[in-house]
Each structure stands twice: as C-alpha cells, then as structure tokens.
Design a protein that fits this description.
- The complex is a heterodimer of chains A (283) and B (573).
- Chain A is an alpha/beta fold and 283 residues long.
- Chain A has one domain: Rossmann fold (3-Layer(aba) Sandwich), CATH 3.40.50.970.
- In chain A, α1 packs across α6, α3 packs across α4 and α5 packs antiparallel against α8.
- Chain B folds into 4 domains: 196 residues, Pyruvate-ferredoxin Oxidoreductase, domain 3, CATH 3.40.920; 175 residues, Thiamin diphosphate (ThDP)-binding fold, Pyr/PP domains (Rossmann fold); 70 residues, no CATH class; 109 residues, Rossmann fold (3-Layer(aba) Sandwich), CATH 3.40.50.
- In chain B, β14, α13 and β15 form a beta-alpha-beta unit.
- Chain B is globular, with a radius of gyration of 26 Å.
- The two termini of chain B are 33 Å apart.
- The chains are: A alpha/beta (283), B alpha/beta (573).
- Chains A and B meet through β2, α2, α4 and α9 of A and β9, α7, β10, α9 and α11 of B.
- β2 of chain A pairs parallel with β17 of chain B, so a sheet runs across the interface.
C-alpha cells in the first residue's frame, strides 16, 4: 500500500505539537515500507487522544473500549492468522485499565504488535496522573503529588517472558519506523512503548526533557539477546534507553494451537458439521 | 411391584466420587431404555460437606426429580439424617454396616440393607472410592438389573484407562451386585429391566449447549472458569482437535468478551460462557458488540446471587440483568432454554442470529439446567442450516459497512476482503465507521440498529403452550422451571384437572402478542419462577400490561420440586 491509500476524509484533531503526530507518521511509514496489502492489516485502537488515529488511517480498524484493545487483537489474530494485527493504545489503556491484558498478552506471545503512546499523563480527560507519571507528579487528580511509583512497562515485559520488548520516541521517527517494522515482522507479541510529549497537559516530560534523558541502544554495543541485561537496562530510570531491549524467537500463541495448523479459522467450512461422534459420547 | 420406575439418591461427603457413581447409574438406566433425569447438590468445596446425587428413571417420559426416594445409598450418617423423611416404608436403604449406624440417626422407615463394604474393599485391595461402585452394584442387584449392561457402561465411562483400573471398578460393582441380589432382592419392590426404546444420550444443559455450539459452526470459545458454567469450557476444550476449534481460558471476563468480539469482527463464530458475576464484568464489552454490530454469543448460566451468593446452587434471578445487559440502547436478543433439547437447538439458533442480526445474542440458563442430566434422543439436525446473513467475502463498489437499510441490517465484510475496509467504532459513527457526533447521522444509525429487533420479530417463533387450550388454570414459567412445572401439570391433568403451561424461551424480543393472547383468555394464572422478585412476571407486565394473578417463588438455591407446584395449583383450583 502507498501513503495515499491510508488517507481518510478526516483531518487530525490533535493539539499542535502533540507527539501523536510523530507516532502516526511512523506507523504509516512502516506500513508502506513493509509493502503490506491494505486489507491484510487490522489496527485495533484504545481510547484516548491516540485512538483518534483510527479516523485518520484507512485500514480495517477497530476502535474498542478504553483498556481493552489487546484481547480484541488476540481474537482477531486467532480468527484469521493471515492478518497483520497492530494495537495502537495509550499508557492509561495499557498500564492502568488494561494491565492484566498487557501481561497476559506478553505471556501468551500472541502475534500482535503493541504500540503504546506513553506521554506520562492523561490528555483526553484533561490532565490527570498516568501510571507512568513519576512519583510526586502534581496533576488535577493529585494536587499534592502522586503517591505511587510509576509502572515500568519495559521491566514488566522483559520479566514476564516478552519475546520482543522495545521503546521508541515520537521525536525520533527514523528509529521508530524501524522498531515498528521489526515489531510487525516479529512472530509474537511485540511491545513497543513510545515516549511522547503531551503539549497541553504535561509540562514536565517535554520533547527536550525526553531528549536529555534518553539514549539509543543502537549507538552502544548492546545486543538484545540477554534477558538479565535487558532487565538491567529497563530498571535504569535515570538514563532511559530507546531501541530493542530484548528479542527471541519462541513460538507465537497461534503456532501452538492445533486448530491453527491448517487454514485460518475464518476459512474453515462450517456449513455442515458432523457431531455424531460427540453425541455418541453421551450414550 | 414398581417396574422400571425408580428414584435413587446417593449422599455422602464431597470427594467420595459420588458424581461419577451417580452418572454411572443415570447411564445404566438410559442404556436399558428408560428416560432419566438427575439432580445434583454439592457445596463449594473440594472435600467434606454434603453431596447428593438424585436420579429418577422411568419407562414413561419424565421432566424432573421428585421428592420420594425409593433407594437411598447413605455413605455417611449425615445422609440418613438429612434424607430419611423422603423415604417410604418400602424404600431400600443401603449403607456400610461398619461405618454407618442407623441407631445414631433419625432413620425411621425404609428397609435397612447393611453391607460389609469396608471388608470387601479391603479384601479386593481396592481404593476407598470404590465403596460407591460397590453400593451402586448392590442397588442394581436388589433391582435385578441386567449386570452385563452395567459392565458395558463402566467400560465406556473409563474408556482409555488401564484394564486393571477398569477391572477394579467392574469387580467392585459385581461383588456389590451379587451380595445385594442374594441378601435383599426378595425384600425389594423395585425392578429394572430392558425395554424397547431408541438410543438415548444422558447429558446436561451445559453439554447440550456445547454440542449446539459445535453444530452451529463455533470456531472460538472463550471463558474464565466459573461455576456452574465451567463444564461448557471443559466439554469444548476436550473437543478442540476433533472439531477444529480454539478454546481459550482468558485472564478475566473483560478479556473474554473483548477477545470473542475480536474473533467475531474477524469473521468466525465466537461464544463466551460465564455465570452472573463474570457476566457483570462483561457489560461494557456487550455494549461494544452492540454499537460495532459484531456477532457474538454470550451464555449466562445463573447461580444464586447476589455477590458470591450460593455459588453451587441454582437461581433465576439474573433475568432482568441479562435482559438489560450493557449500557445504552442497542438490540439485545435473549433466549432461555428450558431443557437439554432446547439448550441444543437454541444455541444453534443463537449462532445464526448473531451473524444474521450482527449483534450480541445472549442465552440464559442456570445451574439446574446446566448441571442436571436428562436423557434425550440424538439431536435431529436435519432442519438446521448455517445462515451467515449478509456476510460478504467480496465487496461491491463504494461499499459502506454501516449503510442504512430497511431491515436495519447492513452488508458486512471482514478483514482480508479487498475494498471492504471499514472501521468498527465504539464511538457513534458514519456508514464507513468514522467517528461522528452529528444529529442526523446519530439518529439514522441508532434507528438502523434498533430496527433489527422489528425485523427479528417477523421470524421469531411464539412461546410454547403445553396442555389443553381451554384450561382452568394457566401456569406461566420460563427457562429451566419447565421441567418441574410440566411434571406437575401432567400429574394434575391425569387426575382430571385442566391445567396448561405457557413456557417462554424467547425473552427479547418479547412475544407480546402471543403472550397477551394466552393471558387474556386464561381463567386463573400462576407464575412459577426461581427468584425472589418474580422477574419474569415483571417483564410480562411491562410488555403486555397484564399482571399474573398468583406467584410461586423460591430463592433458597434449590429448584422447584414438582410436588410444590402441584400443591400450589391444587390450592388454587
């Protein structure tokens, strides 16, 4: 597909300067560079500013409920394993409302690419603390500072058996495009947490702040094949790494399901199923 | 002499293998051509407590368990104490003479038939759990049942196990059989022998739903374990390879419903199953299915609530909850099977309706239907055809997924179809699926979705009316209460009364006209349902304006016994 195929009649409604633009651009570039057929891509969106992307990106799409895009995507993939299934979600979606689904998706290694918009704030609901906000964050819901320490999605994914764990940055589209392409090509659950700014509600984690606090793993001699080393990097909250933390090639969920050995489930003939043997079992 | 009519109860602590033995007896009765119904009570624990398994068999058709017990197998003294009032003078009481002492209990009638169970188990070197099989063998001997049939049933149940394990069971049953026959046959009024009949299954409502799902083209089943719905999960999980289906135990019921909706969106038939608490967690997802017009079937096997309630007992108190599942207005379809045949056929129907009407279809059952076994002939599927509605595998030019249509149903593509792109959107949306909050579009889409119910009303069957048309009293009931109510109706009509039964299986859309017609012409009306607030009577009043005159309600976690319905009707006539 080409860039113009992805165009829709709708114009982006994000605030000027929003990190969502960079991620959106990277998603579109990755899809076109991979030369996928448009009808073979399904993007499942969460609810939040990021989710508005569903209106600006023409593929088969599913805008679900806040926190719940991951199980929807798993169902899509098992129903039709020939599809490329991508989840576009937010930090609230993935690490608060849907943390259970996140861990289970990682654990099950469903063949889904998860792209998390991680701006460390709730934007669409006008500025409350997010599960990735730092301890002490003053926000509308935490006027005296948040009490909890932030969720560490990279460490969680690595510890939970993640087979592809990566982080990008909305202001580094070159790296992000490569990460998304690698994630889509990865046969398994690909976690891509993406740092981004919220131009309106997060005055702390600005583009400049992220630039100051991050470094690219590609610029080091790091090789992403050791879970313990990946965990060490993930736990470093002073110097924040971007790039692929860890990758291996364990079987994706559908590869271990007997009914998925042949054609995709959606192509099975259901017109006249013989249940005689199963009925006889009860006689 | 009572030939081929028996009510047998086994009672004892949990973990003693009572369930297996009870099912063995049910199958033994069905195998010689009798109709069978059984009812199980067990507490929410793995060991201890009081479990009972009651089996009724008859050469004539039966619909439920009854109060009187002809043969009681008491594996402990508690069983004697709890169930002695169900016995009659000629009832048989089987127990281990060493461990159970009737003189320590309230046992006041019945023929005492102690057996040296402990000694025989020791002698056979068998496991303690074989005590059940031994006792059951004795009961069969006392009734002069053809033993070779019993051996065949044991061999079928344990198919695939080692011969030495199977032989242990057969030997225990044989020893019990010989002993029972020799010592107590002459005292027994009860006889079981083979009668001519078609081949029958013995299965639960949950198993019938699983069979219906497979026949209905199910490809993905998802569930989080929850009593009393779990046996749907177990049955389908065991059939994954045979029927080429995917069964997924998900992280929670929120995941369950969203997972199934993803599968439905991608074009396969998907179903989920749970009980009230899990269903509560699915609400937002069901609503999502409504606005995205995604086919999915949701089975709710009710148990006694609220909260954790009485988790292993039965109730029909989720009716209004399921009827109003999910927030907002969207077309909800709700079916309520009353027995294993209806559980099977309505599940095949539900899978068709979900695709045809592109909306969540709910099936409401309960523990009583879900876990009680009933005999049934092999289901006739000759009239069933898979109807995928307006599913497209090729898209026409300028295709729009949510285009307005006179019947409310729009042509539906699935991912993978070229030029069929659309956005399934939980926000209100345009005919393509783009988010849209404008007034005319909102009204068009809302009215299009809701119109599906009007379309469905044209093809839905009316409720069933059993018994004479010109009755002196009409019992109104729904779901699993069909069994005890029909049983009571038959007894009453045999005695010369004129009673009929209006049984509802389609709750939404509601068959307003048909129910109104029956109720306005009824002389006296009685509502029978298994809940505190008479929820179906409320629904009937809301839909028809008619108040059912009298109510017989029960909310102690147990189903109705037909005797209770009989007594109530007698008091009204």
């Amino acid at each position: 597909m080409k860039q113009e195929d992805l165009a829709t009649p709708n114009k982006p409604n994000w605030c000027p300067g929003c990190g969502d633009f960079g991620i959106w651009l990277a998603v579109k570039m990755a899809l076109t560079q991979l030369d996928l057929k448009q009808e073979e891509v399904v993007i499942v969106y969460g609810i939040g500013c990021h989710g508005h992307m569903c209106n600006f990106t023409k593929t088969y799409g599913f805008e679900g409920l806040h926190g719940r895009p991951i199980p929807v995507a798993e169902g899509v993939k098992l129903a039709n394993k020939d599809l490329k299934v991508i989840v576009v979600a937010g930090d609230g979606d993935t690490y608060a409302e849907g943390l259970n689904h996140f861990l289970m998706g990682v654990r099950g290694n469903h063949d889904v690419t998860l792209i998390v918009h991680d701006n460390r704030i709730y934007g669409l609901t006008t500025g409350q603390t997010s599960p990735t906000s730092e301890k002490g964050r003053v926000s509308k819901s935490t006027p005296t500072g948040s009490i909890e320490v932030p969720v560490n999605p990279m460490a969680l994914a690595v510890a939970q058996g993640g087979s592809f764990v990566a982080r990008g940055f909305s202001a580094d589209p070159k790296q992000l495009v490569e990460l998304i392409k690698a994630g889509i090509n990865h046969r398994g659950f690909a976690v891509i947490d993406v740092f981004q700014n919220c131009a309106t509600f997060n005055k702390v984690n600005t583009v400049e702040w992220f630039k100051e606090h991050t470094y690219r793993l590609e610029d080091t001699k790091y090789v992403p094949n050791d879970r313990m080393k990946a965990l060490q990097i993930a736990l470093d909250e002073e110097k924040l790494a971007t790039g692929i933390f860890y990758q291996d090639s364990r079987e994706a969920y559908d590869q271990d399901v007997p009914a998925e050995k042949g054609d995709a489930l959606v192509d099975h003939d259901i017109s006249d199923i013989d249940i005689t043997e199963s009925m006889e079992q009860f006689t | 002499m009572a030939e081929n009519k028996i009510s047998l109860r086994i009672g004892g602590p949990a973990g003693m293998g009572i369930m297996q033995t009870g099912l063995l007896f049910s199958k033994c009765c069905a195998r010689i051509g009798l109709h069978v119904f059984d009812y199980i009570e067990y507490p929410s624990l793995i060991r201890g407590g009081h479990n009972t398994y009651q089996i009724r068999a008859d050469h004539e058709e039966i619909h439920s368990q009854v109060v009187p017990v002809d043969i009681l197998i008491a594996l402990d003294e508690a069983t004697m104490n709890i169930h002695c009032d169900e016995l009659r003078d000629h009832s048989i009481v089987i127990y281990d003479g060493k461990t159970v002492k009737p003189e320590n209990t309230r046992l006041h009638c019945g023929i005492r038939c102690p057996l040296p169970m402990s000694e025989i188990i020791q002698e056979l070197g068998a496991k303690e759990i074989m005590r059940n099989t031994l006792a059951l063998g004795a009961a069969l001997g006392i009734m002069d049942y053809p033993f070779e049939v019993c051996e065949g049933v044991i061999r079928d149940i344990f198919k695939g196990k080692k011969e030495e394990i199977i032989k242990e069971d057969v030997d225990a049953a044989r020893r019990g059989y010989d002993l029972g026959k020799e010592k107590y046959r002459h005292l027994s009024q009860f006889t079981l022998h083979t009668v001519d009949s078609p081949k029958r299954m013995v299965l639960t409502g949950n198993e019938a739903i699983a069979l219906g799902a497979v026949k209905g083209g199910l490809k993905i089943y998802a569930a989080y374990p929850m009593t009393p719905a779990s046996s749907i999960l177990h049955t389908l999980a065991a059939w994954q390879e045979r029927h080429n289906i995917v069964v997924k135990q998900t992280e929670d019921e929120v995941g369950t419903i969203n997972f199934a909706i993803g599968a439905g969106f991608a074009g396969v038939r998907a179903m989920v199953g749970t009980s009230g608490g899990g269903f509560a967690l699915m609400q937002e997802g069901i609503s999502l299915g409504g606005i995205t017009e995604t086919p999915v079937v949701v089975v709710e096997v009710q148990r006694g609530g609220p909260g954790t309630g009485v988790p292993t007992f039965t109730e029909q108190a989720d009716l209004k909850f399921v009827l109003n599942a999910g927030h907002g207005d969207f077309p909800r379809i709700l079916l309520a099977p009353g027995d294993v045949e209806e559980a099977f056929h309505l599940t095949t129907t539900a899978l068709n309706l979900a695709e045809k009407y592109q909306t969540p279809v709910m099936i409401i059952s309960d523990k009583y239907l879900g876990e009680s076994h009933k005999s049934a002939e092999l289901f006739d599927t000759s009239n069933y055809t898979i109807d995928r509605g307006k599913l497209l595998r090729e898209a026409p030019p300028n295709y729009l997924r949510y285009e307005d249509s006179p019947d409310g149903i729009s042509p539906r593509t699935i991912p993978g179809v070229p030029n069929g792109l659309f956005l399934a959107n939980s926000d209100e949306h345009t005919p393509f699926g783009w988010s849209c909050e404008e007034i005319p579009n909102r009204n068009t889409q809302m009215e299009k979705r809701m119109r599906k119910l009007e379309t469905l009303k044209q093809e839905m069957p009316g409720p069933n009316l059993y018994g004479p048309e010109d009755a002196d009293l009409t019992i109104v009931t729904w779901g699993s209460m069909k069994g005890p109510v029909l049983e009571a109706m038959n007894w009453l009509n045999r005695e010369g009364c004129k009673v009929n039964v209006l049984h509802l299986t389609w709750v939404s859309p509601f068959p307003v006209e048909a129910v109104t017609n029956v109720l306005v012409n009824a002389k006296k009306t009685l509502m029978v349902e298994n809940n505190f607030s008479s929820q179906m009577a409320g629904v009937i009043r809301e839909q028809t304006g008619i108040a059912v005159q009298e109510k017989l309600l029960k909310y102690d976690g147990r189903p109705f016994w037909p005797e209770e319905v009989y007594d109530k009707v007698r008091s009204m006539l």
